[in-house]
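Hey, quick one: can you model this chain's 3D structure?
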Amino acid sequence: MSERYRFVADAMLGDVAKWLRILGASTFYEPYAGDEELIEVAKRSGAVLLTRDRGLCSRAAAEGVEVMYVGGMRLEEALAALSERYGVRLEIDLSDTRCPLCNGRLRRAERGEVEGRVPPGVLERYGLFLVCESCGHVYWPGTHLRRMRSFLRRVRALAARGSR
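Sure thing. Here's the predicted structure for all 164 residues.
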């Protein structure tokens, strides 16, 4: 395994894994990975295992893996808690983000490189494109970025209330 992960997320935490990646935190997420694989990846990476499974939480802790149990938390609460406990940045930094699909690093790309890979209207309206170095998926800062930033403002407010 060449990748070093900061977090390992169990099968029930796909939404948390996606957001951690967007926020720049390298996160292992494989929905079909068994408990032993999750524990092993966390051990090898020195990563924090995130889970909603009490049994997995106990087994991982017994094997010396740092675990955060997020059972019963909504997405916003889990991200606020991760920010508070592990310093996860609750801002999207387009120069330091990862592919939400595969965890690959994103790099800036010119219009010419993504032509034919995005709708023509997107190519005309946007000048900034990000391409995943691993899977090749193309991203651009459309209206979804505004919605994501609005969501993160709510998460930051929640985190601020929780730290008082």
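One thing worth noting: The mean pLDDT is 95.
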